[in-house]
Structures are given as structure tokens and as C-alpha cells.
Write a structure and sequence with these properties.
heterodimer, A: alpha/beta, 51% helix, globular, B: 72% helix, transport (chain A), SBP (chain A), ABC transporter substrate-binding protein (chain A), signal (chain A), maltose binding (chain A)
């Protein structure tokens, strides 16, 4: 019998590993705990015994954010912000674990579609009064601004914005003697003409999950559809249009299993003539294939012009040092700071005054991007957006793989939506 | 956790609502749980079967003493030591529909007319995962069985030869019965490690196309960390645990019977 118990114990231990989050839990908390000194009195600081407030910022950016934060730290001597990198794939997990365990940073830069969910969880401080008292609040574009609002209250402000646009390979289009398509019909014919010799005319990632939803969103909105009413003829026409591109062979079936960066690689290699992708891919394309001559156009329009809004919002964690955190936020989002950061990062400003800079009105591709931004719609905002997103991308996949008819797939997705909305 | 109602709305409340079996009811009402369970079983049974057959043959082969047998045996272990995520990435490219080497070879040999597009169809995506998993699992099976084989005294085979036993007879009446504990261990351990598959699926298909390769562990992850439905995610993990627990108990019972024998 004793032997039996030992084995049993071994099995149970295996199981603890199986459940996964158990082991990750301790990991995350362990590193988080050491990183999070809240308010530390720093008497050694030169400014005559002044107390320097220390804040921690979580982000999943490149190194450029560190230089940015350094500028803030040097600009004044009351608040010191330390940026901490958390990988994007772990970001949501770390925040939710931190929330239940009480180990959180003071500031976070989060994907704008997650703001509502985190606000509902009680992660963010309500900053409505701060925002209302701020003279700059009207300078933000409507779409990005809306992404930071949940139930009428401001929980975060847009820091960086982006949207999807159409990239096209100039050489391939010239050879075929076609122009960048402006409507869905033109896209269909152009993509077909461009599809030959192992080149696919068009690609957009329709991966399962948020990435697929993100890329499907422009088509849904352009068709006049809405994520809240998926069993509409408009939503069906968007799905049917994309599955039509698959049937024509203009788009590889592989789009359901590859992400946006994989599509960028194929575009850079000249295997895809046109793709829908984000502005952050521009540098990657230039790096992967410096020879490639490509242009940017608006996503072909259906009933209306549409794109999807991406980007990060900056928010402060509830119950932390509100005054100091607001000091950083208002500095980071001032016209000058936004300008200096967009300069190095290549991201788009969420502010109208910065977007009015010559750089954005004169550079031909940036001009297109700015125009596309105007029709970029935020996803949600809804606390259960992630759930809705899964339902939507699964429905699109079901149609594209032929597992279900458009009507059935969308009706099923609608059932999930109804469940969430009730 | 699985008996409470924890999602985005309630995560930060001090007292979580107790919902009893509500989460389980919700899960059982969702066809996705059944699909995932079926997928996981399908994946496990076929992976184990393939691994076992190939592993067993290799074990018999390497049990013979020939030049290099020890060294090659060591080399064969390599697939098992590579982190699963890396294997998954490599196989994802090999099975890729545009320029993947598997499709290319099959077409060059004129076995298939066009690309199979392994990861893009429900059944072939599942088989891609099974084949990948077998590639990882074969060495493990082989080494476990090989260890078992070396414990069988060679005198038994010698006396059997004297009695005029055929090769097949020796395998059937000496090797298999004496190897039984090893075989059981391999099957159960294999079952446990295969049943909780996560990284392979997550990297290669993310549970797609549609839900064709959604397994219990990816479903649990998706519910908890993509949809923030923590209590249902925990409920799925518990179901996974319960199944493996039962399997372990069955194994213990088997071991006990062996001891009595």
C-alpha cells in the first residue's frame, strides 16, 4: 500500500504541472515583487531632502520607450519612472495574475482593445476628473480617445495609434498593368490578375483569435456590419467576399494559419502582391527586402471606407500614486513628447495637432496612413471583447475552411454575442 | 476557483460568488468541451499507438549488439530533448502549404497531385500534430522499452532456442510477458504526457482550423487567458486532472496485480 501512495503522490505532482498556471504563477509574482517598490523615500537625492516618487511602468515595447522615459525623469525631480518590459504574449496573463495577487505596477501601456476588460476588472484608476480638467483633452482623435473610455468614464488615454492599410508591390502591379484597387470589385479582379507564377494576389491574416478579428474588422465595418449584429446580411457579405478571394485562388488558404508578420515576410519576398497590414511592418519590409518598391493605399472600400484601430493606451493602476502618475501621463501625452516619441518609433500620433505636422501631410505614404486613420474604428470597447473576438474569428475560419455555411457560422457567433450582451 | 464565478467583472471583488457546479454545467452545455475531449482522446490514442509500434521495433533492433548500436541509440534520443516549442515551429514550416517540405516531397514523388495543405484541413491538421508528437515520443518509448529488454536474462532465450522456439514464439512467450511492466509504464506515462499536450497545438495550429485541434489544455488556456473566463478555465483544467487521475489509479491497480502475480 505504501508504494501505492508514493505513486499516487507522484501522479498528483504531475498534475500540478499540467494545470500550468500554477508554476507560472510563482514565477511571475516572484519577479514582479522585486520590481515593485511603491513609494520609496529617497533622502539621498540632491534636491534638499525632497521626496522622489518612484513609479513602475509595464510595457511590451522596444528599447525606444526607455529613452523616452529617461527624458521624463531628467525633465523634473519629483517623480522617477522605471520602465519594465513584459513580453506581449505574457502581458495580459501577468496583469491578471498581478491583479489577483496584488503585485502591480503603477502605470501600464496596454493594447487599446483590452482597456475595457481591464477597466471592468478594476485594474485602472478612474481619471475622468483629471482628463476633464486637462486643456489638451480635445486634441485627441475620436476613435483612439473612445478606446480609453468604459461606461462613460476615462480609464486610459491613447499613447500610440495605428490602423491597417493596403500595401502593394509596385513592380508586380506595373507588370500586370493594374492600379491599386479602390473598391471590393476592383480588389477581386486585380487580385485575380496578379495571381500567377506562385504569387498570390492578396493576403490578410485570418488567424484564430484577436489577430484574425483585428484583420477581419475593416471588412466587417466597410460592409456596413457591426460586431454586435453578426447575423446581418452585411456581415455575411464581408465573410463571403473574403471566402470568394480564397475560391478564386487569389488568396492562399494558408491565411487562416499565419500571422501578420508571416504575411509581411511573404510580401517582402514578392510572393504576395498586395496585403493588408499595419504601419509597423514598413521597417520590417525595408529590412527584409531593401530593393522592394511598395506603396500604401486605403483598404478598398465596400459600402464605406473602414479600417481598424490598433495601438496602445496608457493608464494608471487603481489605488496607486494618482498625482505622480498623472504627472507622467500628462507629460507623455503632451504634443512635444508625442512628437519626439513618434519620431523615433515610427508610430502614429493620437493627437490632431501633431498629426497636422508637415511630416504627416506631405510624406505620400504617411498621408495615406493619416487618411486611413480617420476611418479607423476601435474594437469594442466592451469588457467581454476578448470573448466576442474568439467567436468572430472562429466563425470566419469556419466559413473559409468550408466547415460551415456563412449563415450557420455567423448565427452561431451571434448566439455567443447575445449571451455576452445580455 | 472552478466553483466560483470569476471573470472580468468579478476578478477584483473581495468575495466571489459561489456558483456550485454552474461552471461545469455551462461547459457541458457548450459543444466545444465535447469536441476538445474527443480531439484530445483521438490525438492521444493515435500518438501512443504510433509511438509504441515504432518505439518497440526500434527497441528490439537496438537491443542487438552491433557496432555503433550504443552511439546511434544515443543520437536517436535527440528529438526527445529538443524543447517542444522548437520542434513545433520546425514542423509548422515543414507542413506549411506554401513551400513546406512535406508537401514538396509528396508532390515530387507523385504521391499526391497537389499540396495536401496539412495544417489547413481539420483531419490533416490533427494528423500533422500526431506525427509531430510521435517524432518526439518515439525515442522516449524506445529507451524505456530498451531498459526493460536489457533486464530479460539471455539464458531464457538460449533455453528457448534449445527447445526449438521460433523467433515469433520467443517474442510472444518470453519478451512480451517479461516486458509487461515496462510496457505498462510506457503506455501510462505516454498517455499522461500526450493527454496534456499544449505547446505543440498552441504553436502549430492554435486549436484551428476552426476547432479541429482544440484540446483540453488549449481550451483551458484560451478560456482563462484570452477570454478572461477564469472559473471556466479552471473547470476545464479540473476535468483534465480528473481524467488523468483515473488513468493513474488504473495504472496503480495494474501494478498491484503484477506484484501479486
Amino acid at each position: 500500500m505504501r508504494k501505492g501512495w508514493t505513486l499516487l503522490l507522484a501522479c498528483v505532482m504531475t498534475m500540478t504541472i499540467v494545470s500550468g498556471c500554477g508554476s507560472d504563477n510563482t514565477d511571475g509574482n516572484g519577479s514582479a515583487a522585486t520590481d515593485l517598490p511603491n513609494v520609496v523615500k529617497n533622502n539621498a537625492s540632491a534636491s534638499a531632502g525632497a521626496q522622489k516618487v518612484k513609479l513602475v511602468l509595464w510595457h511590451y515595447y522596444e528599447k525606444d520607450i526607455e529613452d523616452f522615459v529617461k527624458k521624463f525623469n531628467e525633465s523634473q525631480d519629483e517623480v522617477e519612472v522605471t520602465p519594465n518590459f513584459v513580453p506581449f504574449s505574457d502581458f495580459k496573463k501577468q496583469l491578471t495574475i498581478g491583479l489577483s495577487a496584488g503585485n502591480l505596477p503603477d502605470l501600464v501601456l496596454v493594447d487599446n482593445s483590452d482597456v475595457a476588460a481591464f477597466a471592468a476588472m478594476g485594474l485602472f484608476e478612474d481619471i475622468t476628473d483629471k482628463v476633464n480638467a486637462w486643456a489638451d483633452k480635445d486634441q485627441f482623435f475620436e476613435g483612439p480617445m473612445k478606446s480609453g473610455i468604459y461606461e462613460g468614464k476615462n480609464y486610459s488615454l491613447p499613447f500610440v495609434s495605428n490602423c491597417l492599410g493596403l500595401f502593394y508591390n509596385k513592380e508586380l502591379l506595373d507588370q500586370a498593368g493594374v492600379n491599386p484597387p479602390q473598391t471590393w470589385d476592383e480588389l477581386k479582379t486585380t487580385a485575380k490578375v496578379l495571381t500567377k507564377d506562385g504569387v498570390h494576389g492578396f493576403a490578410t491574416s485570418l488567424l484564430k483569435g484577436e489577430e484574425g478579428t483585428f484583420n477581419f474588422y475593416p471588412w466587417l465595418i466597410a460592409a456596413g456590419g457591426s460586431p454586435e449584429k453578426l447575423n446581418s446580411p452585411e456581415a455575411a457579405s464581408a465573410v463571403d467576399f473574403l471566402s470568394g478571394l480564397l475560391e478564386d485562388g487569389s488568396m492562399s488558404k494558408e491565411v487562416i494559419n499565419i500571422g501578420m508578420s508571416d504575411i509581411e515576410k511573404q510580401f517582402a519576398a514578392g510572393k504576395v502582391a498586395m496585403m493588408v497590414n499595419g504601419p509597423w511592418q514598413t521597417t520590417s519590409i525595408e529590412k527584409d527586402n531593401p530593393e522592394l518598391d511598395f506603396g500604401i493605399a486605403l483598404i478598398p472600400q465596400g459600402k464605406q471606407n473602414a479600417s481598424v484601430l490598433g495601438g496602445e493606451n496608457i493608464g494608471m493602476i487603481q489605488g496607486k500614486n494618482k498625482e505622480a502618475a498623472w504627472k507622467f501621463i500628462s507629460w507623455a501625452l503632451s504634443a512635444d513628447s508625442v512628437r519626439s516619441y513618434e519620431e523615433v518609433s515610427g508610430a502614429f500620433p493620437p493627437r490632431k495637432d501633431v498629426a497636422a505636422d508637415k511630416k504627416y501631410t506631405e510624406d505620400p505614404s504617411l498621408k495615406v496612413w493619416m487618411e486611413q486613420m480617420e476611418s479607423a474604428m476601435p474594437r469594442g470597447p466592451h469588457a467581454k471583447w476578448p470573448e466576442l473576438s474568439t467567436a468572430l474569428s472562429t466563425a470566419v475560419q469556419a466559413v473559409l475552411t468550408g466547415a460551415a455555411s456563412t449563415t450557420d457560422a455567423l448565427a452561431e457567433a451571434q448566439a455567443t454575442v447575445d449571451e455576452i450582451m445580455k | 476557483m472552478s466553483f466560483q464565478n470569476i471573470d472580468v467583472m468579478t476578478l477584483n471583488l473581495p468575495h466571489k460568488e459561489f456558483v456550485g457546479l454552474g461552471n461545469y454545467k455551462g461547459l457541458f452545455a457548450d459543444p466545444l468541451l465535447g469536441t476538445s475531449l474527443y480531439n484530445t482522446l483521438y490525438y492521444t490514442v493515435f500518438s501512443i499507438a504510433i509511438q509504441f509500434v515504432i518505439g518497440f521495433m526500434l527497441a528490439l533492433f537496438f537491443n542487438k549488439n552491433f557496432v555503433l548500436s550504443k552511439k546511434v541509440r544515443g543520437l536517436i534520443l535527440i528529438p526527445w530533448m529538443i524543447p517542444a516549442t522548437i520542434t513545433a515551429l520546425v514542423f509548422k514550416y515543414m507542413f506549411s502549404a506554401s513551400g513546406g517540405i512535406v508537401d514538396q516531397i509528396l508532390m515530387d514523388l507523385h504521391i499526391t497531385g497537389g499540396p495536401v495543405e496539412w495544417l489547413l484541413h481539420p483531419v490533416s491538421a490533427m494528423w500533422s500534430l500526431i506525427l509531430t508528437n510521435s517524432w518526439i515520443g518515439v525515442p522516449f518509448t524506445m529507451i524505456m522499452l530498451l531498459t526493460g529488454l536489457t533486464t530479460i536474462p539471455s539464458e531464457l532465450y538460449e533455453s528457448a532456442s534449445i527447445d526449438g522456439a521460433s523467433r515469433w514464439g520467443k517474442l510472444r512467450h518470453i519478451t512480451l510477458p517479461l516486458l509487461r511492466p515496462s510496457i505498462e509504464a510506457v503506455l501510462i506515462l505516454g498517455f499522461i504526457s500526450t493527454f496534456k499536450v499544449f505547446d505543440l497545438v498552441y504553436v502549430m495550429t492554435k486549436g484551428g482550423p476552426v476547432d479541429a485541434t482544440e484540446t483540453l489544455s488549449t481550451l483551458s488556456y484560451k478560456l482563462s487567458f484570452s477570454e478572461f473566463n477564469f472559473s471556466q478555465g479552471a473547470a476545464v483544467a479540473n476535468i483534465l486532472f480528473a481524467i488523468l487521475f483515473v488513468v493513474s489509479l488504473a495504472y496503480l491497480k495494474l501494478v498491484k496485480e503484477d506484484e501479486v502475480m
